[in-house]
Amino acid sequence: MRFPIAQLVACAILLFTTETTQAAPPERPAVSIVLKHDREGWTADYTFRKFAPVWFFQRSKDSIDKVQWRLASFKVVTPGVALSHLGNFDALYRSDGRALRHVRIRVTPFSRPLRSDYAPALTFSDGGLAFYTHHFVVSPLASVAVAKALPASPDWDAIADAPATLTVRDKGNRLLVRGRVVEDAATIPLSGPDTYVYIGSGPLVATDHFAEIVDPGLPVWVRGQLDAFLPRLMEYYTERLGVPSGSKPTALIAWEGAERPGMSIGGSVMDRLVVMAVSGRKMLEADPKTLATLRAFFGHETSHFWIGQTLQYSKPEEGWITEGSADVLGIRATQHLVQDYDPHPKLQQEMDDCLKLNGAGKPLSSAESRGDYKAQYACGALLVLAAEAALKRENAYADALTFVRKLLDANRADGVVTEADWLATFSQAAGPTVSSQVGESLSPSSFLKRCGRLTQRGLSGWSHHP
Q: Could you give the CA distance from residue 35 to residue 38 in angstroms, rounded to a whole number?
């Protein structure tokens, strides 16, 4: 049974209440950081051209096992300089209160996941490493007392600007930065998008649409499945959505061993890069559920090269646009590429989660501030399904990728998609009658009753795109 278009439209209406690999650094950055590898390991040298007695690290989240990771990973060797956790942030300062000029730090790569932040490093079984650039970013403060009083979410506009560059050096080794290979060293302006810098000799596998470095220690069955799925996934997305902005999308996939029971699949997507760390004994044996998890991860995350990077939302409250789209694009792409894949349980779950998390008159625009992040995924997905159903009235082969392509084409010039932009594209898909209804107000109870009936009826399939 298909979604009744009027019901989906009602659901949709209610829910709304410079590419550079090694760019020229600034003439005189306030902070120059050189991360260098030698026989003794990794060293980070900070040179400060802006004088301040305290420099705090903007990203200071603990690890998920509650370790203050930077204090375990960074060891200051410059006499008279301390690294401590002051209030909510890690900070460098001199014991005598004088301004910092140069600080040397021995760095032991820390690869355990953090709470709500990127892992500081990815470690590969062949000795390769990838450092997250923006864990090196620091900002100046007037005193230790000011640092201790800084709130967890400070007014960043009130923090003094301190442009910085990070140079990563490993002589005789290869570095991968934003999809490009360089030898020996690379310099990255830290005022730009965050990324990981890979250092190592792992083979770079490239197609016309995608490049990847996969840990050679990854279990053979996982590697085989990724080699078979990832290039086809990226080719399919490119065919349906066009070429994403910027340089060629790249993946870094690290194997962190089978010492722990179960399995761990963690990762994220950032500027033209998707990273993934895999570990656990359960990963050693082929398993359909594990394979489904891997496909779901890459289906969702790689779609963000289009809906998340080629197009970005204008404010966090509109995160449902990118996250909901990514969920449905991943489902539809997997449905197209994997013969025995059944999308119905996942689609049903999206609807159930939306009704559970965003009912009782809660506007979707407040989900982010409420901390109901899952509502942005589930209700955003429900909205995309409504648009998909509207398109199918005119074209039985239309799907979520058809809708997102229209959204991309309409907004590619400025690279930003707003709620108004989404509504405009949705209105085109749903027709003038629905367009006139978009501004109408529907009661939350009416919405829940309609969507509840749809949930009880169940979800049925769509035709594959030819």
A: 10
Question: 250-255 and 211-214: which strand pairing?
Answer: parallel
Collapsing DSSP to helix, strand or coil, 141 comes out as strand
For residues 106 and 38, is the Cβ–Cβ distance under 8 A? Answer: no
54-102: per-residue pLDDT in tens? 999 999 999 988 999 999 999 999 999 999 999 999 999 998 999 999 9
Per-residue pLDDT of 298-333, as tens digits, reads 999 999 999 988 989 888 888 889 999 999 999 999
- Tokens coding 345: 């349980």
The residue type at 114: L
Q: What angle (nearest 5°) sits at the alpha carbon of residue 182, between those of residues 193 and 200?
A: 95
For residue 443 the two structure tokens come to 């009661």
pTM: 0.78
Domain residue extents for the chain: 31-111+132-192, 206-303, 310-457
Provide the residue type at 266 as one letter: G
Residue 182 CA, chain-centre distance (Å), reads 24
User: What CATH number was assigned to the domain covering residues 31-111+132-192?
Assistant: 2.60.40
Enumerate the H helices of 153-284 as residue ranges: 220-241
